[in-house]
């Protein structure tokens, strides 16, 4: 795994300059009006948000995050409660957190977005990082690395593209035929794009893969810019993960009601995420109280899963760890009684694991290799093994966390304890949840969060 290569910055007044490319991140005439004019207005976003439900944006070049902030701000003021914005952005040379905070001081109107971004900002490892702004109906997928490599690993359809890499003359990797092909493959008919450049080879490259390309007046001193939409699919991208084609699955926007079976950590968190997306949730458990199964354990560790590579699987668990610790720390501010102790956790390693960990070269802020002497010193225990220390890890009480989550859900979810669901039936595009007393609920979708007992509701299924 190669470490993150950060952007090297200098400042001209308040405008950040990338030294690798000798380019400013936004116009001296004003970053906010520039981004609004080019990307929001020439992708016709506000009008399109009124005409469809969930919306997907793909961006080449996250930079300072200004395009993202402006898009989120416009989205909040124009979205319907059940809509979700999925924002995929790639950056090969991210700006370090301290520099970002310095830049963002000039845009205090976006402070409510920064508070979501900073705790989960990927300052440690490359790859895909998922950051949710739950209150805003936004999910940011920030990818650190090469544009083609990162976007090629996704299985999504993009509604609008922001092409905002540094100028084609200085940053050719973001303006290649591979990039244009990827845009067409991940797009659909009428997918739009907008970019500040009017370079001829960019126009011809996009036309070659099926985009209608138009010129418009550029921003500030720029004479022209390009925008357009996909009118013809030159190639068809096969589904990379066909197992995601789920029988009876409805488009997310059509799912209005969900039944969740099991009121432990998995069920409560699922219900919480769904109600924050405007979905009506009915939560069932056969026990008289929440967390009556494995979630009732007195203590649980919150730590990343050890991996000797940085595969997509490893990235998933890294993201889960980062989001969880950031969310728990935020939750503790509202619930002082929450027993979340971010003390750091040490995982003991054998010689084989130790060698693999050394080859991965984790950043110190994420994981540190300790000798057996260092493990003994940090743990205050006599230990005869080396270890991997995760400074941001910790422990909590799973049952108490479930009780806190129940407080969050009161009045927002239909909770039915001592209600065992014994049968699922598909009737007229609904799932009927039943027991020996008869039908209890009809819902658009069902989530089984009842561990090994899920198999009793899906006989013959491989779970």
Protein architecture, described:
With 463 residues, the chain is of the alpha/beta class. The protein is 30% helix and 24% strand. The chain is built from 14 helices and 24 strands. The protein has helices spanning 31-41, 45-49, 66-78, 97-104, 111-120, 147-152, 177-186, 200-208, 265-275, 312-334, 351-360, 372-379, 398-409, 454-457; strands spanning 9-12, 15-18, 23-24, 55-60, 85-91, 127-133, 138-144, 160-163, 192-195, 211-217, 224-230, 257-261, 280-284, 300-302, 340-341, 345-348, 368-370, 387-390, 394-396, 414-416, 423-427, 430-435, 438-443, 445-448. The strands form six sheets. Strands 6-7-5-4-8-9-11-10 form an eight-stranded mixed beta sheet, sandwiched between helices. Strands 20-13-12-24 form a four-stranded parallel beta sheet, covered by helices on one side. Strand 21 and strand 22 (430-435) form a beta hairpin. Helix 1 crosses helix 3 (66-78) and helix 9 (265-275) packs parallel to helix 13.
Q: Which range does the strand content fall in?
A: 15-25%
Helix/strand structural class? alpha/beta
Count of separate DSSP helical elements:
14
Radius of gyration: 24 Å
Instruction: Please give the alpha-carbon distance between the first and last residues.
Output: 33 Å
Secondary structure: number of strands = 24
What is the arithmetic mean of pLDDT? Answer: 89
Main sheet specs: 8 strands, mixed
Assembly status: single chain
* Helix residue percentage: 25-40%
Strand order of the largest sheet: 6-7-5-4-8-9-11-10
Low-confidence stretches: none
**Envelope shape:** globular
């Amino acid at each position: 795994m190669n470490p993150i290569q950060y952007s090297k910055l200098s400042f001209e007044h308040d405008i950040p300059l990338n030294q690798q490319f000798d380019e400013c991140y936004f116009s001296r005439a004003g970053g906010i009006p520039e981004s609004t004019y080019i990307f929001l207005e020439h992708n016709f976003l506000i009008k399109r948000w009124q005409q469809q439900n969930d919306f997907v944006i793909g961006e080449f070049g996250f930079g300072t995050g200004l395009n993202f902030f402006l898009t989120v701000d416009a989205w909040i003021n124009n979205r319907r409660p059940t809509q979700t914005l999925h924002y995929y952005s790639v950056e090969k040379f991210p700006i370090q957190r301290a520099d970002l905070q310095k830049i963002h001081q000039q845009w205090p109107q976006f402070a409510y977005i920064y508070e979501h971004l900073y705790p989960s900002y990927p300052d440690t490892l490359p790859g895909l990082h998922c950051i949710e702004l739950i209150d805003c109906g936004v999910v940011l997928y920030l990818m650190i690395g090469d544009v083609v490599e990162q976007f090629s690993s996704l299985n999504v359809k993009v509604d609008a593209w922001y092409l905002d890499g540094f100028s084609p003359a200085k940053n050719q990797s973001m303006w290649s035929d591979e990039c244009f092909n990827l845009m067409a493959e991940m797009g659909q008919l009428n997918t739009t794009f907008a970019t500040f450049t009017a370079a001829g080879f960019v126009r011809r490259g996009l036309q070659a893969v099926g985009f209608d390309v138009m010129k418009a007046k550029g921003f500030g001193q720029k004479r022209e810019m390009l925008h357009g939409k996909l009118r013809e699919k030159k190639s068809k991208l096969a589904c990379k993960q066909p197992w995601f084609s789920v029988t009876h699955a409805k488009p997310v926007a059509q799912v209005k009601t969900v039944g969740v079976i099991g009121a432990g950590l998995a069920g409560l968190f699922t219900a919480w995420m769904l109600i924050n997306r405007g979905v009506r949730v009915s939560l069932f458990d056969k026990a008289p109280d929440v967390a009556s199964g494995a979630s009732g354990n007195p203590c649980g560790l919150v730590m990343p899963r050890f991996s000797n590579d940085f595969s997509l699987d490893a990235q998933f668990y890294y993201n889960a760890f980062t989001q969880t610790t950031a969310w728990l720390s935020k939750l503790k501010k509202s619930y002082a009684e929450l027993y979340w102790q971010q003390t750091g956790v040490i995982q003991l390693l054998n010689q084989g694991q130790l060698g693999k960990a050394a080859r991965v070269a984790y950043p110190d802020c994420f994981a540190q290799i300790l000798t057996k002497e260092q493990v003994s010193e940090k743990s205050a225990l006599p230990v005869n093994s080396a270890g991997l220390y995760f400074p941001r890890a910790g422990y909590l009480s799973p049952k108490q966390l479930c009780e806190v989550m129940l407080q969050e859900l009161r009045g927002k979810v239909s909770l039915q304890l001592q209600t065992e669901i014994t049968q699922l039936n598909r009737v007229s595009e609904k799932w009927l949840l039943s027991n020996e007393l008869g039908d209890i609920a009809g819902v658009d979708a069902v989530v089984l969060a009842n561990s090994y007992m899920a198999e009793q509701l899906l006989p013959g299924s491989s779970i």
